[in-house]
Amino acid sequence: MRKRFWLVLPWGDNRILLPKSSYSLKNRAYFFLVLSSIIPLALIGYISYISMISLLNNNIDDGIRSNMKQIQISLSNVFSNLEDSALQLAMYNGRVADDIETYIETKDILTKYEKKKAVIESISLINAAKPDIGLIFFYYANKHQVMFENQSVQDGFRLTNLPALASGINATFYGPHQTMKSTKDSNVFSVARKVNLIEGADLYVYMETSIKLFEDLLKSQQYKLAVTSIMLNSQGKIMYSQGQKDFPLGSYVEISKLNETGKSDSIKKGYYVFAEKGEQGWYILSAVKTKAYSSDVRKWFGKFALLAALSIAISLLLGLSIWRIVYRPLRTIHREISLMSHNKFNSELKRTGIIEFDSLLIQFHDMKDKISDLFVELEEKERKKRVIEVEKLLHQINPHFLHNTLNTVQWLARMNGQDEIDRLVALFTRVLHYNLGKEGGIVSLSEEAEALQNYVDLQRIRYAYHFDVQIKVDPELGDVAVPRFIMQPIVENAIYHGLKDESGYIQIRAYEEAGKLTITVQDNGAGMTEQEIERLLEPQADAHKKVGMGIGLSYVRYMLEVNYGSMASMEIRGEKDQGTTFKLTLPISRA
User: 292 FRET partner, CA 20 to 30 A, in 59, 75, 273, 326?
Assistant: First the structure.
């Protein structure tokens, strides 16, 4: 069995009992307004978040890759220039190679001087053509001897002491490392290319170029976030690093991970690492901290969260405003209902300024006016009914005393053989019993017709059968309910006011017409004018007291109003010396 719980809701001066399953309109308004704000914000936020991440990340990725590609191309060109220049000096059977070979093999001092001069001139030509190339010399590895240098070289030069970056055809690239010039004033990239001359001679041409171009390229990168640039040799060893703390020189990076992903978060925890491979086999890396990488997204998310909170706050304020807009008219409507419940129907219409509520209040006031009119009408009907009952009681005598007296008269008439008197008293007794009875105000049509027949027979005896009365009732309508004493006042009026001679007649008919009970009382008497008809229907007309039972036609009209309202009607048609016709129309109601 389901249990129900109740709560008491205060409203104005009243307390309303409501089930606890009821919901407050205010809470509902807040809930749906906040929900209507959150759902679009959540959908827009989700779509924007996905789009923003994709857009920002793609922009960052594209920017980093573009700059790295530029660095890779520039460095590849630097190393290609070094390699081409070294090839010119180390070309087999070239003029420079011949001069070097002659210089090494000859013992003639003059010849040595000339060949040395010729080689240095060739080096100078390369220096002039490519000013970015600095130190150039030949290194005789067998003897650890430096020859034909264009600038002074440090003592103890060894190729094996240089940090190898990558290897090409008969050439090895080094760097970044300090220059081999004795001044040690800069960092350089270098190349050593083998020169095949005398059999067994291990001779190399060595060239350097500054890394200033490389460093300038790194400084010119515009990422809008901190990027750490790293250079690896072909084995993954870090040769250059802008972040010594997390990417120290000499440490190694797994090349396979770079080749597999391009952008990887597994190289170093907390970093995204981008990679570009140079033509000579070295790598350029750009490492971005994951927090910095997503900082724009977090900033956007913070702004969006602030906007969402602001939107929800505005929704709550709108909900409060809407509640106030709705609550005041609701209080006005509740006040109107409360006044009506206390039978106060004359309150002034107070408009709310809202079309929908004003329309509702106007309709409510119209309904209240109609209810007030109905109450007035009901009170008037009750008053009329009481007036009728009082008038009826004023004209009644003690039924028991009257019946007992008439029974005594009837008994005496029978004992003396007065049959006519016996019949007259019997009829009169039945008429009095019906008219003064207490059985109720509603009887069947057959009972009303029977009582009317007794009354007519009584009047015939009284007037010695000087008129003819015909009563015709449709047998199928015998059980139709009608007010007691509804036909007799009309027939009584016809007898007392209509008939003037012995040829008079009264015809009473009861039949169904248009779905209603129709009762007509027609006489051929003196007739009536309109003024006489109006006077006859007046509640206090003197004609009441001049007829048999003293009730009159106003009783009939009141009974129709009390029992049927506008659904019943009484019509009187008469012309002077042409007779009078009474027509009653009642709804058919079967008891």
Answer: 75
Q: Report pLDDT for 568.
A: 92
Nearest CA among 559, 570, 571 for reference residue 392: 559
> What's the rounded Cα separation, in Å, for the pair 580 and 575?
7
Q: What would the DSSP string read from start to end of 216-279?
A: HHHHT---SS-EEEEEE-TTSBEEEES-TTTS-TT-B--HHHHHHHSEESSSSTTEEEEEEE-T
In this structure, which amino acid lies at residue 388?
Answer: I
Would you list the DSSP string of 477-507? GTTBEEETTSSHHHHHHIIIII--STTEEEE
Confidence of residue 226 (pLDDT cuts 50, 70, 90): confident
Contact 537, 587 (CB under 8 A): no
For the chain, helix (H) and strand (E) counts, in that order, are 14, 20
Residue 217: closest CA among 30, 66, 353, 334:
66
Answer whether residue 35 shows pLDDT above 80.
no
At CB < 8 A and 24+ separation, what contacts does 76-80 make?
A: 76/278, 76/279, 76/280, 78/132, 78/189, 78/209, 78/213, 78/214, 79/166, 79/173, 79/189, 79/191, 79/278, 79/279, 79/280, 80/279
Token code pair at residue 107: 């013992």
Q: Pick the most confident of 215-224, 364-373, 417-426.
A: 364-373
Q: By the 8 A CB rule, do 446 and 408 touch?
A: no
281: left (phi over 0), alpha (psi -120 to 50) or beta: left
Structure tokens at 206: 């060595």
475 prior amide bond cis, ω within 30: no
pLDDT tens across 415-439, in order? 777 777 777 777 777 777 776 665 5
Would you list the domain boundaries of the chain?
23-332, 343-395, 439-539+547-587
> Which residue(s) pair with 8 in the sheet?
17
Band of the pLDDT at 360, cuts 50, 70, 90?
confident
Q: Which residues pair with 264 in a beta bridge?
A: 273
3-state secondary structure of 154: coil
pLDDT digits (tens, 9 = 90+) for 537-559: 665 554 444 444 446 777 788 88
8 A C-beta contact, residue 333 and residue 327:
no
Phi-psi region of 241 (alpha: psi -120 to 50; beta: other; left: phi over 0): beta
For 424, left (φ over 0), alpha (ψ -120 to 50), or beta? alpha
User: How many C-beta neighbours within 10 Å does residue 233 have?
Assistant: 23
Residues in the chain: 591
Cα–Cα distance, 140 to 198 (Å, whole number)? 11
Specify the DSSP class assigned to residue 543.
G
Tokens of 45: 């936020």
Q: Is 198 helix (H, G, I), strand (E, B) or coil?
A: coil
Strand residues in 354-449 grouped as ranges (E): 442-444
Contact 415, 433 (CB under 8 A): no
**Contact between 147 and 153 (Cβ < 8 Å):** no
Please, how many CA atoms are within 13 Å of residue 3, restricted to the half-sphere of its CB?
Answer: 1
Query: Tokens 């007065």 map to which residue?
Result: 418
Domain 439-539+547-587 falls under CATH 3.30.450.40: no
